[in-house]
């Protein structure tokens, strides 16, 4: 059964339960489409990283990559769990500030940080900026010098490692818009340039090889490549890194095709490799940082939709249409991403046929799921799509002037609205009359 592959249960009414709350009552009380998160699972995922580092006695920081899902409530949970936070824009930093997230635990990314973004990071006294390109080194150096301030930074590098994932979410390959290239000497040039800016405290290297990755081997190759560069800087300049940030990218299960490994295994493997490399280089073990996004929230979220029209093309396929689509989950249209779902009010019933789930946008490519096994299905049934917690709400759009759905957190059998459903007034609120 599909449900057995996802961390949710079925109650005595045959309804899907999320965190102990009936999905039908959630759909009824809050409307659909609706993003629902089981907060206990978010906490469990976060702890599996943090506790493993503790168990190994390693000095570490786990930063939640807030691009996966950022909202005030979400960041409050992350803060409660003691994680750090990765932001990539002024908007994500603003959300963190509004959530009261401790600024020293915030790290800023981005491949084109503006003067304004860097200035905001300085004003907020965030913990670290991850520099991505030469333009930023000069911009940050000048801003800090003007204000007589200092900042901890990491240098993001691309190690030239192709991760086994969709081309659009590979980031460690040589032909990448992110970071300083290691192979062609750019990273070394950046290292030399950083010496000119005493206000920039260069703490170490950062590398993120991509997203939705299931093996540890590419992470280990990337680590080895980073250490080769660090060994050169030690030999030539006696540079000793204090921090090594190995990014995020740990894969989750969307469908039966995905075989995720326990998050602990990434931590064990990477700590062992960093230990080995540090010993070979004869330096103290640097602090190890990680940045999981999807691994923290992906499998904790479910999207509930109401089924509307249905269309059968005999001998070809049966379509069911839902009240959302690519506006609340862009991933199928953008990456051909696959999902699994159940009919929430028939979650105990055996599938008898396959249907394809269409969104309601004016695009033939707005298909959420192809060939989903379902029991007999009717208009007004509620469809629950699993593993929509990461990059769903955060990539939602107003295409076709759809209002963004609400977000509900469920914990201890209680449901709480944490992001309001947008109204159509919200959709037009920045439009100005031309008359
Ligand atoms: C720099 C950086 N860190 C962390 C992440 C989080 O990735 P994921 O959600 O796959 O863990 C990303 C996104 O791929 C990223 O670009
Ligand atoms: N948005 C992507 C991941 C991007 C990761 C950030 N660099 C996804 O849904 O899989």
From TrEMBL:
Residues that bind pyridoxal 5'-phosphate: 249, 291-294, 391
Protein's UniProt keywords contain Lyase: yes
Annotated pathway: Amino-acid biosynthesis; L-lysine biosynthesis via DAP pathway; L-lysine from DL-2,6-diaminopimelate: step 1/1
Matching InterPro entries: Ala_racemase/Decarboxylase_C, DAP_deCOOHase_LysA, De-COase2_C, De-COase2_N, De-COase2_pyr-phos_BS, Orn/DAP/Arg_de-COase, PLP-binding_barrel
Catalytic activity entry: meso-2,6-diaminopimelate + H(+) = L-lysine + CO2
Keywords annotated in UniProt: Amino-acid biosynthesis, Decarboxylase, Lyase, Lysine biosynthesis, Pyridoxal phosphate
Residue ranges constituting the Orn/DAP/Arg decarboxylase 2 C-terminal domain according to the UniProt record: 35-389
Cofactor dependency: pyridoxal 5'-phosphate
PTM annotation (N6-(pyridoxal phosphate)lysine): residues: 67
Domain Orn/DAP/Arg decarboxylase 2 N-terminal: residue ranges: 42-298
Gene Ontology terms: biological process: lysine biosynthetic process via diaminopimelate
Binding residues annotated for substrate, in chain numbering: 294, 331, 335, 363, 391
Protein name (Swiss-Prot/TrEMBL): Diaminopimelate decarboxylase
């Amino acid at each position: 059964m599909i449900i057995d592959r996802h961390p949710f249960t079925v109650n005595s009414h045959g309804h899907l339960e999320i965190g102990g709350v009936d999905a039908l009552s959630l759909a009824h009380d809050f409307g659909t489409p609706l993003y629902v998160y089981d907060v206990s699972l978010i906490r469990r995922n976060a702890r599996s990283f943090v506790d493993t580092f503790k168990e190994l006695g390693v000095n570490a920081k786990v930063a939640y990559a807030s691009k996966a899902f950022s909202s005030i409530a979400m960041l409050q949970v992350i803060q409660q769990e003691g994680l750090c936070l990765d932001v990539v824009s002024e908007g994500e930093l603003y959300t963190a500030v509004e959530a009261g997230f401790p600024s020293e635990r915030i790290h800023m990314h981005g491949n084109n940080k503006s003067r304004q973004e860097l200035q905001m990071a300085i004003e907020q006294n965030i913990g670290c900026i991850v520099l991505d390109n030469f333009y930023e080194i000069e911009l940050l150096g000048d801003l800090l010098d003007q204000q007589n301030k200092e900042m901890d930074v990491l240098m993001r590098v691309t190690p030239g490692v192709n991760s086994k994932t969709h081309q659009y979410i590979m980031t460690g390959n040589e032909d990448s818009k992110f970071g300083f290239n290691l192979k062609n000497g750019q990273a070394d040039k950046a290292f030399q340039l950083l010496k000119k800016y005493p206000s920039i405290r260069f703490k170490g290297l950062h590398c993120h090889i991509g997203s939705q990755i299931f093996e540890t081997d590419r992470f280990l190759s990337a680590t080895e490549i980073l250490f080769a560069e660090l060994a050169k800087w030690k030999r030539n300049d006696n540079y000793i890194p204090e921090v090594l940030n190995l990014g995020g990218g740990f894969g989750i299960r969307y469908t039966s095709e995905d075989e995720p490994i326990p998050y602990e295994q990434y931590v064990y493997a990477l700590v062992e490799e960093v230990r080995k490399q540090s010993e070979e280089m004869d330096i103290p073990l640097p602090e190890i940082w990680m940045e999981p996004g999807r691994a923290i929230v992906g499998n904790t979220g479910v999207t509930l939709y109401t089924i509307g029209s249905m269309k059968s093309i005999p001998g070809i396929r049966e379509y069911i249409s839902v009240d959302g689509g690519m506006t609340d989950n862009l991933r199928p249209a953008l990456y051909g991403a696959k999902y699994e779902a159940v009919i929430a009010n028939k979650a105990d019933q055996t599938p008898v046929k396959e249907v394809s789930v269409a969104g309601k946008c004016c695009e033939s490519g707005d298909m959420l799921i192809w060939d989903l096994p379902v029991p007999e299905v009717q208009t007004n049934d509620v469809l629950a799509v699993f593993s929509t917690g990461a990059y769903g709400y955060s990539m939602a759009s107003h295409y076709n002037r759809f209002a963004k759905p609400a977000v509900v957190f469920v914990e201890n059998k209680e449901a709480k609205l944490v992001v309001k459903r947008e109204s159509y007034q919200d959709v037009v609120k920045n439009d100005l009359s031309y008359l």
